[in-house]
Design brief:
Rossmann fold, single chain, 6 helices
Length: about 200
């Protein structure tokens, strides 16, 4: 039986590749399913994680993250909980734009996004600060609720970067140094949150 004060082990995964990933198109909140390569990646991910017992699972509500979680959990009897706060950063008007038209219309903003991502708020979308606020609040609740357990969290590139910055105590300017490939995973040992989780 788990007890308060125990660490929570988290298997943090990024969804498999979509066709938009392959073409460099920003997805954000658009519900783009896995492509054929992404499906194969999730099968390989499931094999890699087969020896790890999973007690609970949480996923972004977007289908690419849910499909990835389903592949890992197949045959385990664990039902994932879809959590709206784990959806990807909203790119607003950038969603669906490939690199060339995106740069033609928003070149200055894209340069700033690359150089100083925390300074950018996407038109009709979000900033990284807004993303971090919603993601880390639910992250702390998940960790607090599963002391002593192993939990799968299936989410997205920028969501996972924010989580990894938080989990490793890294400064915000390390954001771009953290890169997780599609269908990649990281194992985290998380102590109880220092802030009391909301009831």
């Amino acid at each position: 039986m788990s007890e308060a004060g125990e660490t929570t082990r988290v298997v943090l995964v990024r969804h498999g590749e979509t066709e938009w990933n392959a073409r460099g198109v920003y997805q954000g909140w658009q519900d783009v399913p896995l492509g054929a390569r992404g499906v194969a990646q999730t099968m390989a991910l499931a094999r890699s994680l087969a020896g790890i017992a999973i007690d609970a699972a949480y996923t972004s509500p977007l289908s690419r993250a849910r499909e990835t979680a389903a592949a890992v959990l197949r045959g385990r009897g664990v039902v994932p909980v879809a959590v709206p706060e784990l959806r990807e950063l909203s790119y607003g008007v950038w969603e669906g734009l490939a690199p060339a038209p995106r740069r033609a219309a928003w070149g200055d903003l894209e340069d700033r996004w690359i150089a100083d991502p925390w300074s950018v708020a996407f038109p009709e979308g979000e900033s990284l600060g807004a993303l971090a606020a919603r993601v880390l609040a639910v992250w702390d609740r998940i960790v607090a609720a599963h002391a002593g357990d192993t939990v799968l969290v299936s989410a997205h590139g920028h969501v996972n970067r924010v989580i990894l910055l938080h989990a490793h105590g890294l400064p915000r300017d390390a954001f771009w140094s953290l890169d997780q490939p599609n269908a990649g995973f990281v194992l985290l040992e998380c102590p109880p949150p220092t802030i009391q989780a909301a009831a």
